[in-house]
Each structure stands twice: as structure tokens, then as C-alpha cells.
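ARCHIVE CARD
Drawer: 12
Card no.: 0347
Subject: one protein chain, sequence and derived structure
Cross-reference: see card 0346
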Amino acid sequence: MVCLANTEGGELWLGVEDDGRPTGLHPEHQMLAGLAGMVAARTSPTLTVQVSLVEAEGVRVARIEVPKAQGEVATHQGVYLRRRLKHDGTPECMPMLPHERVSRASSFGLIDVSAQPVAGATLADLDPLERERLRQAVQQYGGDRVLLELDDEALDGALGLTARLADGSRVPTLTGLLLVGREGALREQVPTHEFAFQVMAQQAVRFNEFRRFPLLKALDWLEINFRPYNPEEEIQVGLFRVPVPMVDLAAVREAVANALIHRDYHRLGAVHVRLEDDALVVSNPGGLMDGVTLANLLVTEPRPRNRALADAMKRVGVVERSGRGVDTIFRGMLKFGRPSPDYSRTDAHGVVVRLPTDPADRDFRRLVVEEERRRGAELPIDSLIALAAVRELKRVTAEELAGRIQRDAASAKRTLEALTEAGLVEAHGTTRGRSYTLSAAVYRVAGDKAGYTRQAGFAPIQQEQMVLSYVRQHGQIRRTEVMELCRLSSDQASSLLKRMKQHGLLQQSGERRWAVYTSA
């Protein structure tokens, strides 16, 4: 039972075999009234479950619903267990080792390992040269300039690089060693810290180096070695030349810094930065924090695993100070007309972000630059996602955009209407059938006047002719096929088919989703 008190909760079925076949409860185990109380009495902290009796294929089985845990749950004897799958795919319960419990607690945000003193570390393990690098980083990245006025001891205290013990002495924290520690001390005191930069060209390894540098030195080293593999072109926008790199350096820096900051320092494994033929892939040990999912990545409040380290990096200026670093990564991809960052390979054991290196859309980049200059500010990330979605899909609705910006349909509609007022997109239809395309002006600037006509929609007579042509070729048509053929919403397709029936062009057989339309 304790094994099921995991991050997402779960269900336990009694009387069901491992293959899912219900065989029923043992006659002596069918009295379930006290089962929930027994579970509560034998767990610490108390685990409250819901027990119900269910009929399945003529036999009685018990369904036990285990809630989502907010921390580690032990047996009443103080034993901590975790669930895992064996090599044959069957589940088992295994003891949780001390470091696994600390790692799990940090994923819930219950403790901050990066603020803790490192056992055995001394002030001699901090490198004066790395402190100077930190001060230079504050100037380079526009960090908190108050830090430049502090002496070493005050700087250590302000950034949490050291902690005071009960006797008044100072010792380095994990944050201190990671930011300004000597490389030898990091190897000895933080053996899990490692990062790798790899360049793969059609499965051949062109660059493959592993390092244990302090984080600021690591970022500098990575940027220097990455630049030769990141060719850059330029486009003319008005009187200015705008660089177009293969991968936006700001997005790369944010993705790598996030991986180093938010990784689980209790897990072995390196932070990998790998340049492949079609993407830059950044991965780190340790899954997403509790409450953060791929469905709310853009909108959830920041939940750093290592809060002290994250705060120090924000004050230095290396990462986004608002904590919205994901926005920077998305912006670095979308403003060049490239696909969104791909987090789909992320799981409970590691976060993986893939930054596609598709060729940039120069016309789209000009559009973004010109609009941002007109506004005197960057486009909101929701507006940039919306423009990218309209560019990719040619026509979108508020409901379709809502999933991409991870907000409700009302928010998506406000974003699209704001872009309509700015003259970047045009609205078609009303109420539920309202959809949006890039505006005629945008297509005209891109030199694709015909593209606007194709995407803004055909005249009703043209839509009717397309439907009739489809019916002549295939014998029949459905509403979903009309939607795809004419780029219409569900309501718009229904209206078109209804009008064609009234005019005697089509006849209908079947109702609702089974309706089929043929020539009259």
C-alpha cells in the first residue's frame, strides 16, 4: 500500500490477477469495512484511502483508491518503500535508500538541498578566480549590481554560497561549491555533478567532452565550444541587419542553465547537451517538480528543485529573473519560424528538451522584428505562439490555440483579437465558428498574394464546387471531410452542407455523425 502513495496516487485492486483477469476476493477477505482504517493505522503519516466493492465478470473484487501523496509515506514500523518494475515487467516494492528519500522530498519542494552545507567542505574549497568570474557575469548579463559592491564574505552571504554553523564558522553550501568551487573540490564533494557537450553528425561523433567545471565556467566553456557549430546568417529589416543563427544562443543558454539548476544532485548522470543532425537536445537527471506537467509548463508558477541555486543564478543574471525561463526558450525558437521546443521525451527520471534546427522562416522573422519595433517591446509569448500556430496551421480557432498556450479559450480569443487589431491576422466568421488566418497584408509583404486567397477561404460557390467535385470522385462525403477539404470549422461545414441540401445539390442519408452526403 505504501508503494502506491506516489506522486500521482493510484489504484490497488484485490481479487484481480496481474494479467487483469478478475478471480474474486477470498471468502475470508470480503468484509471490507475496516480495511481503510487498517491502512491508516499502519502508515505514517496516516494514509487515507477509499475502499469499494465492485462486481466484475460475476465475482466480487475490491477497489482501493490511493490519493496523491504530499511527501514520503512509511509503514507504521518506519519502513519506506518505492514501486518499480522488474526485468519481466511485473511490479515489486523496494526499500527507499536515504538519498532517494531526500531526492523525493526535494521534488515535492519540502527541502532545498542546494542551501545545505556540504559535509567535509571548507572555505578553502572556494576558488577566488571563480568569485571574480561571478562578478564579471553580473556585469555581462545585467545582474543585481548591488553584488558588485560587496566583499567576499558579504557576497557569499547574499547569494547563499556559505552557511554559518552553530559555532559561528562558515562552510560552503552546495550552491557555493557549484558556483565558485574549485574543480577538485567539486569532484570530491559533489560527485554527481557532471555535464557533457556532444556533436553528432550522421551518427559520427565530432565532439564529445565531459567536464566538472563550476556552473558559470561551464556555461562559458560550452558557449565557446558551441559557437563553431552554430552558423549565423543575416537578413535585412529596413535599415538594420538582423542575425539569424541556427540555434538562438539565448534559448540555448536558458535551456542549459535550467538543466544545471534544476537537475537532481542526488542522482548519478550528466547534464547532456547534444547537437544532432536536426536538433539540439538538452537533458538532465531528475524529472519535473511535483505540480509541473507538460500541460502547464508555460503557465505554472516557478517551482525550482534547488531554490537557493536558482535564486543565486537569477541575481547574477544568468537566467530569467522572473523565473519564466521556459518563455525564453519558446521565444528563441518561435521568433525564427521554427517549431516549438519539444519536451515529449521527459519522464519521471529526467527532463529532455529538443530544440529543432529547422531552417528559419525569414519572412516570419521580418514580421516579428517589424512588429516588435512598432510596439517598442517584445511580443507577448502568447501572441508569438498564436502567430506561429496560424503560420503553421494556416487557420486556427480560439479552442485550437488554447491548448498551445495552455490557457482557456477566452484567453486564446483575446490574444487572437489583439493580433487582429494589430493587423497581423484576420478573423473569419462569428461566434463559435470564428477562425483566424494571417492577414492579407502579411501575405502581401511575403510576396504570396495567392496564399491569402487560399487560406482566408473560398467564396461559397467555390466551396460548393469543391464538395461536388469530391462527391463525383468518391461517391459521397462526410462533414469531417468537408471541414478538411474547405478548411472550415464544424459549424461552418454543417451550414454549407445544409445550404447545398436546400438548393438540391446534395442528399443526406443517416443522422448526426453518421450522416453521409451524395449527389442529388
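Annotation on reverse: The mean pLDDT is 86. Residues 43 and 364 are 58 Å apart (CA to CA).
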